[in-house]
Amino acid sequence: MPNQWGRERAEPVAVGPPRRTMTRAQRIREARNRRRRRIVGVLTLATLIVIAVAAVFLGSKLWHTMFGTANDYAGEGVNDVVIQVHDGDSTTAIGQTLHEHRVVATVGAFVSAAEGNPAISSIQPGFYKVRTEIPASNAVERLTDPQNRVGKLVIPEGRQLDDVRDVKTNAVTDGILSLISRATCVDLDGEQHCVSAEHLKDTASTATPAALAVPDWARDAVTALGQDHRRLEGLIAPGMWNIDPSASPEQILSTLISASATQYAKGGLLDTALAMNLSPYQVLTVGSLVQREATPEDFAKVARVIYNRLAENRTLEFDSTVNYPLDRIEVATTDADRAQLTDWNTYVRPGLPATPICSPGQPALTAAEKPAPGDWLYFVTIDMQGTTLFTRDYDQHLANIQLAMGNGVLDSAR
Q1: C-beta of residue 177 within 8 angstroms of C-beta of residue 185
Q2: Which pTM does this prediction carry?
Q3: Which backbone phi and psi does 304 adopt, to 5 degrees?
Q4: Which residues 6+ apart lie within 8 Å of 140 measured at CB?
Q5: What count of Cα atoms within 13 Å lies in the side-chain half-sphere of residue 59?
Q6: Mean pLDDT, each 10-residue run in order, the chain (414 residues)
Q7: Hey, where's the site called Important for catalytic activity on this chain (predicted)?
């Protein structure tokens, strides 16, 4: 039997590719690459850890700011402060504003305090007086109390910038500047703060048209009057406005003029003026005359009289334009008043007055944009009920005037 142990041993079979023989330089380079890859891996891991920690920290901070109801102020607060609620603000947005002004400790505290309170949904855009560092429930109460709303400005149709006095009764009607001044008054920590009408008047006279946001279509007319504050007449539209009591006179006026220009544009003033081959400023001026000279039912007829007289190169001869720079109301002006040379007196000045003579409402502007058809050149109110007669015939107009005088309508009281 052959000796199996005496056989030759088989050589081991190599598995995989043959080993690559590297030079010493290659082995050093490979070691360096392995070391570099380990360093990069460590740095990447460290960066991810830092990012994760930061995310947790910031997320926690945001969570406590937005939703942490455990943190809330106590007590009666520190100082009075005015905050603004913008149109479309949600409860959370209002809470964020309060938090930024240090009124509430967290947004979440305010949202929780407001939850279930139906009055919170009735908060109107505007400015409100609250206190810093008060409980969120107190902030809700203050915002829903109408007494804490400040900066609310209401301008009735037909008001002019200055106060006017009725010649017969001596009653004074507040002008737009006085109305603005009153709207800026707010009591902060027991001290009354107001922007005076005189300060507003000075700003209206001296600030540049650009700084006052005067629209392009009124820029030339405003510039032509130099430093007369009446150059801004008519550029602040009637209506309800919200003004910041803490703003400067220039900021207040520019905000109102800019918003009014937008309102006029939305009402179609620019497009209609273009169609009528007039400037928007001219149509605005006609609207102011209509507002002062007529009652709403006769607005469109008076507008037609204005355009008819202008087309025939006749002076308008409106007593309202005599009264305007005199800051008074009087149905029948005197011969001396009608003879005064002013930029507004249409007895002596051809065409339209230098500026509007008041802030016309939309009905008066609509009449200026769409006058009634007719050939009238004259009109006069003949009784205390406001009945107004229109005619083209001058002799008939004189007869109508006698009728008005007989009814006491044209009594000057002077």
Answers
A1: no
A2: 0.80
A3: -65, -40
A4: 110, 113, 114, 117, 120
A5: 6
A6: 42 44 59 63 58 48 46 93 95 97 96 91 94 96 95 98 94 98 96 97 98 98 97 98 96 98 96 95 98 96 98 96 94 90 97 98 96 97 92 96 89 62
A7: 293
